[in-house]
């Protein structure tokens, strides 16, 4: 019997099989290879085939070919959009409830296909391998009872951690109002773990980080947990853009090191930041908002080398900022208001510093707290400058240290007195102050008490001071440097406009996927995106390239992580943008030579010989770059028009920023550093710069060598036209060092607690105005003219304050003059 059970018609024409390959989990390369494969259409019997092909099989096949070719173009367009949006097309292993508990040991991508439920004392997913991405895929891991763990990352030891792990895009939740002894995500003995876009609710610990290095937590949402995030024996943990609401505790620390918390909000907690045990050293809290906590907002104990900057703490039942048993802490541009119970509960201060030496408060504001604005107890070496206290229930400023701490240019008004005397105004207690109009305040060094009605004496000495003012105006003439600053500002504005225009016109959906290959070269313009971590080198050999690391890491290249080299200064590469990821363990993280218009944004470089090396490069933007634990953080040779903003150069073995500092006579020109930090760099310096450079609001601490020129800020010999404004050097070998150059301006800079000089000038002819130096072991100033806090030379805010200078105040002598003093 002749019976056709199955006939296969082979259509000999190409079809866009990339879509089918993607559905089958094949790689993009496999999809391209299969584009010309045959397509098989099956028929159950010959009759069906004849019916389909009549009346003219050839004509039908031709029509079908045209339709398929039309589909092919549509599929190509869809695939392009999918690549741009998803960016990861490698195979995915789906995880179902039926497989719980899971043990993941092989690298690759794993994706939840549905919600997973975890029972008592069990773990939903255990990760014991490296190179793993776990995508929760908008699903939840549900912990039903005590002892359950959602995701557990377990390395062998601190010397053999698992690494390169990403967990993202979903929720870990307890079924009740926080479930006892449950943990959402647990890390132990890990390195370079990234947790992002994850919600953690109703848990004992939302995220527990132990013996982990380089953990990044971004865009986490923590709610109704006992501890939202707890750290223990960790290093280089970064928490950004996350929210904490309604939990008992926000972020707690125990023997944590090099922590960064940035752009986070905390509300309705017990405490936002708090001590759990151990210490916290070298940390930064930046741009965080805290409110409505039932205890203190920032509750810091046993911390050191910590900067709290641009943070607010309001409407907490306890104190806004509480610091105890700590040292070397800076509060800058912080705000505390409406803290302390206002009815029958205890009253509390906006800022309380207790048993904590060497603390600095700059430009901080404390208002409407039920107790004091600023309260200092049993703490020495404190400096408060340009701080404001208004409408607090008790004193504005109070200190039990008998005037041994330093308060300059602070302002207090309308603060209440002791509780027993509620109707008295007590703006200062145990702190020297002056009337609003007194001559002391014309120098900007004494503290303003708005309730002091002392007679204004300024007019009485105005004619005598006028001669000094004339001399001052001549000394203060620095038009050359001002012209350079204006020119740099104009160049930066033009650069910003060009960058904005480029961003608007270049952001299309055409993305080229970059995968893990030992060495790969980008030969054509366009947008490139990492779909996975890379263990090798990426070479940029074309102009107008955007390389998005997409949150991934370039590991252990053996040479250079990202390498871009133009032909010459007349034939450079140009228009290169590198962003959003990290480089670890290369000889040099990023190298650029003969490159123009280079942007490096949201990039970290770690454990390299040199984090970033730029030579013969023009027009550079470094934004939110972190370069730490390298030999040198940022090495610059013949670089012009660089703007570095909000960058961190910490814990490098020799130097944070070296411009001309490693044997180059030429380094950096027409450039600016704004709001950058260089701390704890080993045997050298924080910032070392050369000609036509401006540094604003930069911070350097604990940069130690054993001899000059080791310093927080170093200006090299043969450098020209350097301006430093509002910069701060603390606990370095030396604060600010100028090496045999004569066109430097420093204004409103601070040097305290440095081992050698606060300010050292090898030339002795540069310009220093309204700077402050105190408690520098080798001397506050060398080669720099200074004046005592109370001398008339400070009357026009142009001389430099030396807190150790005990020269007699000359105000009284001026009053006694019958004729103008000679």
Task: Describe the model.
This protein has 822 residues and is mainly beta. 13% of the residues lie in helices and 44% in strands. It has a 24-stranded parallel beta sheet that branches. It has a six-stranded parallel barrel with strand order 12-13-16-19-17-14. Strand 39 (434-435), helix 5 (439-442) and strand 40 (448-449) form a beta-alpha-beta unit. Residues 1-41, 82-89, 458-478, 502-509, 661-665 and 817-822 have low confidence and may be disordered.
Distance between the termini: 132 Å
**pLDDT average, as an integer?**
81
Number of β-strand runs? 70
- Poorly predicted runs of 5 or more residues: 1-41, 82-89, 458-478, 502-509, 661-665, 817-822
Shape: globular
Computed structural class: mainly beta
Strand percentage lies at 35-45%
What are the defining features of this structure?
822 residues, mainly beta, 24-stranded parallel sheet, 44% strand, globular, disordered N terminus
Strand and helix layout:
Layout: E1 7-11, H1 18-23, H2 28-33, E2 39-43, H3 46-53, H4 57-86, E3 92-95, E4 102-104, E5 108-112, E6 116-118, E7 123-127, E8 132-135, E9 140-143, E10 149-154, E11 162-174, E12 179-201, E13 203-213, E14 216-218, E15 221-223, E16 227-232, E17 238-240, E18 243-245, E19 249-262, E20 265-267, E21 271-286, E22 289-291, E23 298-301, E24 303-309, E25 312-314, E26 321-324, E27 327-332, E28 335-337, E29 351-354, E30 359-362, E31 365-367, E32 374-377, E33 383-385, E34 388-390, E35 397-399, E36 406-408, E37 411-413, E38 428-429, E39 434-435, H5 439-442, E40 448-449, H6 458-475, H7 479-506, E41 511-514, E42 519-522, E43 526-530, E44 537-540, E45 545-548, E46 553-555, E47 560-565, E48 573-584, E49 588-606, E50 610-623, E51 626-628, E52 632-645, E53 655-659, E54 668-669, E55 671-674, E56 677-679, E57 685-689, E58 693-696, E59 699-701, E60 713-715, E61 722-725, E62 728-730, E63 736-738, E64 744-747, E65 750-752, E66 757-761, E67 767-769, E68 772-774, E69 779-782, E70 801-802, H8 811-816
Parallel strand pairs: 3-5, 4-7, 5-8, 6-9, 7-10, 8-11, 9-11, 10-12, 11-12, 12-13, 12-14, 12-15, 13-16, 14-17, 15-18, 16-19, 17-19, 18-20, 19-21, 20-22, 21-23, 21-24, 22-25, 23-26, 24-27, 25-28, 26-29, 27-30, 28-31, 29-32, 30-33, 31-34, 32-35, 33-36, 34-37, 35-38, 37-40, 39-40, 41-43, 42-44, ...
Antiparallel strand pairs: 1-2
